[in-house]
Design goal:
heterodimer, A: Transcription Regulator spoIIAA, 13 helices, B: alpha/beta, 10 helices, 10 strands, 25% strand, disordered C terminus, ATP hydrolysis activity (chain B)
Chain lengths: 371, 261
Amino acid sequence: MQENGYIHFNQAEGRDCLTLGGDWTVAHYIDLKKQLANLGDVPQSVTCNIESMKKLDTAGVQLLYRALGEHKLRQLPLTEQQHNLIDTVINACSNQEPPLPPKSNGFVKMLERIGIFSSNLYRNQRDLLGFMGATLQSAAQVIGRPSRWRVTAFVAQLEETGLNALPIVALLTFLVGAVVAFLGATVLSDFGASIYTINLVGFSFLREFAVLLTAIMLAGRTASAFTAQLGSMKANEEIDALRAQGLNPLELLVLPRVLAMLVSLPALTLVAMASGIGGGMVISALTLDISPALFLHIFERDTGINHFWVGMIKAPVFAFVIAIIGCNEGFKVSGSAQSVGEHTTSSVVQSIFMVILLDALFALFFMEINW
Amino acid sequence: MSDIAIAVRNLRNQFGQHVVHEGLDLDVYRGEVLTVVGGSGSGKSVLMRSILGLTQPTAGSIQIYGEDVLRLSAAERQRVDRNTGVLFQKGALFSSLNVRENIALPLREHLGMNANDAGDIASLKLALVGLDAQTAETMPQSLSGGMIKRVALARALALDPDILFLDEPTAGLDPIGAGEFDSLLQTLQQALGLTVFLVTHDLDSIYQVSDRVAVLSQKKVLVVDTLDKVAAYQDRWVQAYFHGPRGRAVSNQQMRPEHGN
């Protein structure tokens, strides 16, 4: 059914003649373009023979227009419909503006990108602070008026961010607790101090691991969900619809999420502490012959309550930062699906980065005050 | 018969308990503009999606140029799909590609063209739909509604298909933009000899571009004929559609002698 398009140049009876045949369609574009390039310059006096031409479409006309020029093209003995086609294409081609000037070189472009990145970095942090302020402001407006508390939304978010994350957080910290106990058992037994495995697990989980692991887990799980939810709503103009109805999207959408995180992250941290220490206890019982009763006794004797507070104080701070970053990135989504993806990635990366950075600052602070 | 482009026979579409089409027959002739009208939920889009292979019908047969497309292998189906261009209602432009790349994508994927050749043809297609070279480098998010439709039309035409499917191409356009789009469609259809399957609610479009009109109602094609005959068809819905306040306004306008560009 299909026939390859072709073009030949031959001289018959002292006259230059071009023979065109086959399908001059987009399917044969590459081949035809090559043939035309091989043909080189066509003399003006050439006559065209198109008797064996089968099909012609816009891509074919475009090629012929470039090769033969407008005048010659219009003279071809074609059907009326094909002449219509040629007229349309020639009109379009002549209305076409010259191509854009070449883009600037790679080095300038790189500098430009560094500049854009740096100014964006600054602007992002400023926006984040602004968003934080706006959220706190709307919280202050709502707090005195229980009629405007979004209890249903809050509970729904609490289930999603807290309860549903419970199994994975518990499992994860249990395993890490076991790993830390293994490490302690291996390294400390060289010094005959394997009993201190209990202190190692206790200190590390109360102070750092429980809250850090939970925060990272929720940053990956919840911050991304917040961004994707709010981002899709933004893309669908739902947030604009709320604003247009005089409703405050911060109050309706952001506050319940932030509050739910403020409750669920500390609660999960508590679970993570218990679960991690439980992991350490199981390993101690299995490999070091430290019975759970002895484990708990030594743990209680050696570990001050201040270590628990060091861990717990950090939890709401991390929760607030993760929730704010997740929501803020969601609000920054613009229209396209790609934008939702970009901002979701960005919210996870940012919140994990901020959690670890804040944790380091906290560690410095608690070291200075000798806790 | 060679002058039938699409033949739908005894089509049945059912979603759960809900029957959308039952015993639906429809022919689309080569080189005509067939407009499909019908109330909301009458299955216009489902019919289009069935023909395009995006929805698998429950029963029935669909032939495109004599080939039973429901029984083709995936590779053969792809060959048929290359011969059809689709303009989706919201444009469905790929949001991660700019306008030129959107049009060039099928050329590069199907025909293995390099970026330059594909870009070249894409520029011509853009010029055909009346957009300038500056538009080629913009991203779909920053286009207006009318421009999105034009770019989508250019993309539908990228492979120079024989059959063009348009799903409410003028929905959401202002009357001037919609009128321009209709003229553009008409010009291109005549120049390129396209067969057009047009789903629309726009009475102006129906009067301006369609050769025949098919009315979808009661799960089948109620009537398919030229506009005059369909408008005269005795059915409550058809009468309300073409002779309601909006329909009357358009038909009066079309009949006024001084009208006509």
